[in-house]
UniProtKB/TrEMBL annotation:
One of its GO terms (molecular function) is pyridoxal phosphate binding. This is Kynureninase. GO terms for cellular component: cytoplasm. Signal peptide: none annotated. InterPro entries: Kynureninase (IPR010111), PyrdxlP-dep_Trfase (IPR015424), PyrdxlP-dep_Trfase_major (IPR015421), PyrdxlP-dep_Trfase_small (IPR015422). The keyword Repeat does not apply. Its EC number is 3.7.1.3. It comes from the Bacteria. Keywords: Aminotransferase, Antibiotic biosynthesis, Hydrolase, Pyridine nucleotide biosynthesis, Pyridoxal phosphate, Transferase.
Amino acid sequence: MDLSPEAAKRLDTTDELAAFRDRFVPITDASVIAYLDGNSLGRPLRATAERLQALVAEEWGSRLIRSWEERWLALPEEIGDELGRVALGAAPGQTIVADSTSVCLYKTLRAAVALRPGRDEIVTDTANFPTDRFLVESVAAELGLTLRWIETDPLTGVRPEDVTAATRRRTAAVVLSHVDYRSAAIADLAAITRETHDRGGLVVWDLCHSAGVLPVELDAAGADFAVGCTYKFLNAGPGAPAFLYVNARHHEAFGQPITGWMGAADTFAMAPRYEPAPGIRRALSGTPPVLGMVGVQEGVALLAEAGIDRVRAKAVALGRWVLALADAWLVPLGFTIASPRDDDRRGGHVTLRHPDAERLSRVLIENGVLIDFRRPDGIRIGLSPLTTGFAEVRQAMARVRELAG
């Protein structure tokens, strides 16, 4: 494979998504050579900055409290429906923007367990993201349930056969990540959901590392629940609100544990008792974070314009480019590849392992290559298709070779 600067330039020239890079706020720090951490925090959109200014001056500054009824109260469902359509394969009325991923996970897991009375086990995997593992442990302790662990190799991710072996008639819920946060291994969402359903359990999927970078087909897979963040590939901003999905077949019986006024049937009735709103709105608790939702709305709009299939195609191409550069330049220096080489099994980043990864990560960041370190020895190369270029990646990998050599 041609790894020359000219080859990188050709890849950028033929990139169908290259023009979208101009839609983001420029990086003004001249010391930054490459931003390869968009799978942790996406870059800000120019449109988001403009919308925030307009919101402060007009919707908030001029319309004042009237904006709640005029626009803001409907945003969680409006944005949720568009996110479901553009990125999640979800029909309207099943996705809503709310809270943080942790809170959404707590709500959906508690709801899933409640829908399976008499079952006393929750299943997750040892390689799952810490929030997921911590919350599963917390809910199990809170409800007196047994937690069953799947021992997982992050490189392969959780396989359907692993779930088959771990689930049984006592399984109430399975909690898994669609894309492994370390290796980017993609789990077979449809097959695992099917295997769990065959044993009478429900699945809560964490889509944090898949939403916005690869197509997700929740409805087609018959998924039960899903949660995810919006500040990675959706570029909604630090601390932007998360989303949760509840399949329509569960709506009538769905009950979440944090019952707040925004999830009530009549928000402003100030009723003496809680009565849940119909449909997905019952998943809300407190007042929607309007400022944060602006970033979600703009990120989803840009993704709709770019198209999730084109985004996925570029993520695959960027991954191949990193693998080729790593094989040629870094493997001889003691690096190993810790992500799937199969395009169909790899998400939106590539992880490199190195014995001195922690120190090297600090050196790289100090020298303008912004990457992510993941214990014990992983360096994540984040590939955000709407902002990452091929020449940018080549320059970063050349700097890694220089500093590690």
